[in-house]
Please model this.
Amino acid sequence: MTNRRGITLMELIMVIAIIAILATILIPKVTTLITNAKAGQCLANRTIMEEAETRYRIEHNNTPSDSIGQLQQAGYLDRIPVCNSGGVYVWISTALPVQMGCSFHYWPAPLP
Model:
């Protein structure tokens, strides 16, 4: 009787098949989580900029800011938020309450 060392080809194929099955289950879930996290960050950025614009208007007799850069220069934003998926932020409603949209994640309908 000889000592058997190593693994057989059949065992190797079974391990690869199990890994492939687990990967097909987990990869879509992980990509969905990443996509949802990016959309959530984008929503948070828009909310921060909307609130900064609202504070600016309250303190400047309802005069709108010229740009997001002006909000940063005036101290209402620490930095200008950037959509992590490459979207562009645009003001949807400039009347109070202000509303901002993102070209990649969400274009809200203007408020009536």
About this structure: The chain has two helices and two strands. Helices lie at 9-59, 68-73. The chain has one domain: 9-102. The beta strands are 89-93, 99-102.
